[in-house]
Amino acid sequence: MQQTEVYLYEKVAILISCLLSVLGSTLIIATHLWWPELRSKARQLLLFLSLADLLSALSYAYGVLRDFQRSSWDCVLQGAISTFANTSSFFWTVAIAIYLYLLIVRSDQSLADSLVLWSHAVSWLVPLAITAAAVGLQKIGYDASDVSVGWCWVSIEAEDNVLWMLLTGKIWEFVAYITLPILYILIKKHIYRAHEALSEYRPILTSSSSHHARSSIADRKLTLIPIIFIFLRMWSTVRFILTLCNSDAVQNRILVMLHGIGNTFQGAANCIIFVLCTEAFRSRLVSGLCGCCKGDPDPVPRKAMLNQCEEVQP
């Protein structure tokens, strides 16, 4: 198989994407640790998703910097880490969607909270078992960058490499493609019906305007979550299908660039949605920065406290 060459400008772009994901995932983890009063079960799930995205971005960055030309011990190690972290990220992303569905649509707080324990069992142990099996059977190695962009994944020398590509990532990616839009559409429909049912009472509610504005922001965030996930991940899926078809289009430079950035930008995207676009966290970050500049010992305003709408949002 002819190797898909990764040019310098592509490596730079992917490394920048990895750096942004590392910073974004670190910021999510840091805000969770710094502000315990803003924690929720959904934010706890987001914390573990960020840990998986952080590990994934670091392993991808190493692979791009190393630019493997053959299977080696560090190629196998990098491929194993990225396989585990990437698969775990898929599971945690779906777990957050299921949690919000149970909490918002089913209104079952106890069932939603019990999901957290099961999420740990599935999102850590299943990827670990799959990765351990792939490494033990020598399925991880050099892949000529036809299903990656500089990093190692399933070895091209494995006779059943397509099966292991599915088991170590693609099949879970396809499940997420289907599950996320369905769950978030059901959540949005439930929110829309609730808004319609309460619309005749809004004029007599003193806080109706601010509550409606917060609900609209939450509604837009629910729309963005599956759209951003699919947009970032679809390019790797396209290259995977082209590889199965033995198409030369798999080496298209734009497609290679989108694949590299899409696979490595998830941590940064989550930070944008759940930190920078969430008023409570954004207000605290801005106040904290201003307080550091002015030397204010207590820069956090009371109005930044988490409102009811954002208790539901991860």
> How much helical structure, as a percent, in the residues?
over 70%
- The percentage of residues in β strands lies in under 5%
Q: Per the principal axes of the C-alpha atoms, what is the gross shape?
A: globular
What is the ordering of alpha helices and beta strands? Answer: HHHHEEHHHHHH
**Tally of contiguous helical segments:** 10
What structural class do helix, strand and pairing data support? mainly alpha
Q: Radius of gyration from the CA trace?
A: 21 Å
- Average pLDDT works out at 82
For the biggest sheet, the summary is: 2 strands, antiparallel
CA distance, first residue to last residue: 43 Å
Tell me what the structure shows:
The protein is mostly helical. Helices cover 74% and strands 1% of the residues. The chain contains ten helices and two strands. Residues 204-215 and 296-313 have low confidence and may be disordered.
Write the layout of secondary structure elements.
Elements lengths: L7 H27 L6 H26 L6 H33 L3 H28 L3 E2 L11 E2 L6 H38 L9 H37 L8 H12 L1 H11 L2 H16 L13 H5 L2
Antiparallel strand pairs: 1-2
Helix pairs in contact: 1-2, 1-7, 1-8, 2-3, 3-4, 3-5, 5-6, 6-7, 6-8
